[in-house]
Amino acid sequence: MILGRFTLKCLLVDYKVMARSRDRTEDFKDAARSAALSLGFSESKVAAILASFIMHKPRQRSPFTKAALKTLESIEALEQFIVKHRKDYVDLHRTTEQERDSIEHEVSAFVKACKEQIDILKNRITDEEGNSKAWLGLRGDNSHVDTVAHKHGVVLILSERLHMVTAQFDQLRAIRFQDAINRAMPRRKLNRVANSESPDILKSNHLELREPEELPAEPLRVQQQLLDDETRALQVELTSLLDAVQETETKMVEMSALNHLMSTHVLQQAQQIEFLYDQAVEATKNVELGNKELSQAIDRNSGSRTFLLLFLVVLTFSILFLDWYS
Amino acid sequence: MALNLRQKQTNCIIRMLNLNQPSNSSGNANEEVYKILIYDKFCQDILSPLIHVKDLRKYGVTLYFLIDKDRKSVPDVPAVYFVQANQSNIQRIIADVSRPLYENFHLNFSSSIPRPLLEDLATGTLKSDSIHRISKVHDQYLEFITLEDNIFSLAQKSSYVQLNDPSAGDRDIEEIIENIVSGLFGVLATLAVVPIIRCPRGGPAEMVASALDLRLRDHLITKNNLFTEGGNLGSSFQRPILCIFDRNFELSVGIQHDFRYRPLVHDALGLKLNRLNVQGEKGAPRSYELDTSDPFWVANGSLEFPEVAVEIETQLSKYKRDVDEVNKRTGGQDGADFDGQDLIGNTKHLMNAVNSLPELTERKKVIDKHTNIATVLLGEIKERSLDSYAKKESDMLIKGGIDRHELLSVLRGKGSKVDKLRFAIIYLLSAETTPQSEVEAVEVALRESEVDTSAFLYVKKIKSLNVSLASANSASKNNIVDWAEKLYGQSISAVTSGMKNLLSSDRQLALTRTVEALMEGRPNPEIESYLVFDPRAPKSSSGTSSSHLKGPFKEAIVFMIGGGNYVEYGSLQELTHRQQLAKHVIYGTTEILTGGEFVEQLTLLGQKMGLGSSSIPSAH
Question: Is the entire prediction scored with pTM above 0.80?
Fold first, then answer.
């Protein structure tokens, strides 16, 4: 009916050539060829243009991009290193404490090196910015604004990536601390239990010993009793000392973990505070400039006011004069 | 297999940001890690609900700009363009490539770029001898905005006005249908499904359905097309059903006041692209983001407003309890015991507390945000007495009428002008027959409150025309030559059927009932007259109705032409939750409108028909 006729008409006109897939580069090349021919390019030129689509010239990169890519590679190498040694690090039985310490040491050295590279990149941006500004006499060339912003973005991406990798490693380290604490705790518990058991055993032994040995010589027994008492006292003292030492050990471990945690937070805050400080400094500069502009405006305003007043007065007098004259 | 539109669209965008390379080529990706993203206004709206700016850095995007902005050169970096395929964008791209602003260009168009524009691009870049800088050209078929997992909008403004405009020409209507079809095609291409299309007879729905069917058929002819990319072979049980409706099917839903949280925030405070701007407490405007990452919003979006306030209270008290517990454990009290055991436990609790602090601050932020929103909302509700409007309107729609005295008192009472107009229109739509005296009294009351009555008169005219045209329609079908008038007539009969549905006792929307019936596939008198289109079936068998076309469907895509809102979305989601079988419904519309905006469109139509109380005739 009418419906069918209308829709078919519009569809057949528009959808003669429809894209079948998302990649339209082939269609674009076709269009380029036909456009080149219609513009009257020579055959060789057309062929050259089409060839350039397939084979790209090797791209020259700016030194900044090269350095950024190298830093990215090193961060990825660090990540792979951590992944490779993750099982060794976490599992209690595969490595000794020393090996674990050495892994940690290596990782922190690596992280420091990456951080240095990122800082170099950041300084390079500000240096280049400063250079270009000095060269153009503080005229403020706008054409590099986007490039500078892009470089800042690259540095930001790199530092975020590094942060992610170090966070991963921190998690592993936290697991290691947890294991250390857990190992310390049961030993204490075990000792406590053993402690509470041993005096009982000693006492029961003592009781047992007392009965058959009632008859032998009294002074010997007294001496032995004294000795026994002394050894028992020493034992108790030593075990309590051992307890205290182990407690301090676990406390130290926990404190170092907490310390580490706090330091990351404090560092983050320090960065934020520094950023706020910079912004505040900039704000004061802006306020100063604003004040200057305001005072200039006031001067001009008052200046123009006196001028206007003078003008009106002169006009009034001239009108009066003319009136008196005629 | 649940269709998650948002996920699929995000995946497409991520693939585009990775320069359309397969994701597991690690060595290659290093070469082009840092890129710049350029988009235009429409594509910015597409991107903003999906990706946050800070996530862009994850994919190596260092800078992002609008295409119209004055941009400076950044040598040595590839640029990814995501724009609509129109003439001004092409010109801008040619200018950028010729300068050249960037090292090379990856062009992505949100819909299929037509051949003439492609040739323009080629000619322009050949003239400036910089065509070798264009690396790739892609069609992304992403010209729609996904707001949450299951709701999308085509962002085509004023489609209701244009479709129902009595003075619209054939060419205009065809163009609009064209745009809608291409948007829907993009949705289907992203989901990589070929659905079975059903729609009511007559009206824009039928036109869109048949045009879409033709387009899909045309596209599926080649073997390697967009729909085999997803690897979906489309057996009948896995194919979803696409139901297309026109706004005139159920006009009242677009106008009425609703009292649930999400529609209320959208209607009263103006939620746009999941962003909300409200006046904060200190008078500073604050902007909030309300999307799937906000757990409170997801959980309580469909509750009524008083329940939402209660929910906020409970969350707040729970949060306070948790904070107190954390404080207690970590020595917030006075005495620090030096008992060894406790100290060890203390430090462990301290560590746990520090680790759980970010989560607690997140929760507090969410609670604060919603408290703020609820306070502002409460102010609005009190000022306009929205609760009484919502309640009276729903009563009217269920009972089918309202006491005259009550009606007039509401119209003279509190509320903004738009609220009163909406109330009056709902009154018209709810009653089968409205005595002339009442209607006149309503008009007088509206004019007293200085309300522009064009919209009211337009709906009245539609309703009255329905009485006279209903018989004429069936008799004189052959005589109607003018296309727009026929469309007009169809919309009127649709309005009456929509009104009849409103009179059912259950407050379920007609749309939800119809979709349920269509998905179940059992014979139902309501949907008997609905048309079926199956793009995969060969043309010859389109007459016979094969059984699998009407079988129960597990998934549905519901599309509303002319404007939709969160009320419909909410009721469709309720449908999925109610059923025992896992059903999945995606809701889409040409644009998401608040009640006020929709009434504006009705006003425009009224003025175009010359019905307005304003004496200036609209000149077009």
Answer: no
